[in-house]
Amino acid sequence: MRTLLARLGDNDRLNYVLTNRIPRRTLTRFVGWLAKIEQPLVRDLSIAIWLQFSNLDLSEARKTTFRSLHDCFIRELKDDARPIDPRPGVLTSPSDAIVGASGRIVDGVMLQVKGSTYALEELVRDPEVAVTYRNGTYVTLRLTASMYHRFHAPHDCHVEQVRHIAGDTWNVNPPTLKRQNRVFCRNERAVLRLRLDATGHTLALVPVAAILVAGLKLRFMDMPADRQHTTPWVRDCDVGLAKGEEMGWFEHGSTIIVLAPPGFALAPSILDGSAIRMGEPLMYLP
Asked: Is 80 a domain residue?
């Protein structure tokens, strides 16, 4: 069974069709409902099926039993599972991830994958943010289904604004990114505007939701109940977070795009396709 699923996963075209050319929103709502069922038989069966599709490792989880598939998916980790790089000049990864496109933003244009670009302004739907990071630095962090799905503050900072943008539920895996343009600009997402405490530099995190369950949650603020609003939902705030402190979580696998202003440099380990863990170096401050 696992071998068959692995073969299906290796077939890019089939993967794309099976995870995108379906009623995405309907399936996402159904899986979201199913994942939260706490009946033991449903829970055990759904987790067993999940294990067939992924290399799920629960050895780092804070608890060993779960109420539902959803409870397992958004699991917390043991306190010592993710050491945080303490150096003040280091911006750490907000999540466990596979590194996607990264580098310099060129006149407001970013790379989705080789040969496919998208506009920063369309992603963030905020002219001020688009100007701030127009020629800055970015990293795309893709979370796979079996990964730890909570994200954390990359430095001591204050969250100054949250902008939620309604959208679709396209898959964000490589087969989709190769075939569908502007995926991150199509999906549900949020723009979190941060200011670093020590230096005053600004930073933006853009968590992007995806197919199956979808949605994202913030620990410090309730997100809008209506996820299909036609204009961005914007809330100013002043939330202090320590480096490595939890910010929120994804309801399912997705992506975080980190935006930094000019002068920030990528850590040498940030290479397309490389794995990174929350708390490891992502960028260096100017």
From this structure: no
One domain for residues 39 and 152: no
* Same domain flag for 62 and 109: no
The yes-or-no verdict on residue 34 having pLDDT over 90 is no
Are residue 123 and residue 51 in the same domain, yes or no? Answer: no
The strand pairing partners of 164, in sequence order, are: 190, 233
3-state per-residue secondary structure call for 233-251: EEEEEEEEECCCCEEEEEC
Same domain, 65 and 163: no
> How many domains is the chain built from?
2
Task: Give the number of other Cβ atoms within 10 Å of residue 95's Cβ.
Answer: 28
pLDDT of residue 92: 98
Domain that holds residue 256: 90-284
Same domain, 56 and 132: no
pLDDT band at 35 (very low <50, low <70, confident <90, very high): confident
Q: Which pLDDT tens digit goes with each residue over 215-248?
A: 789 999 998 877 778 899 999 999 999 999 999 9
In a domain, 82, yes or no: no
Rounded to two decimals, the pTM is 0.88
Higher model confidence: residue 50 or residue 109?
Answer: 109
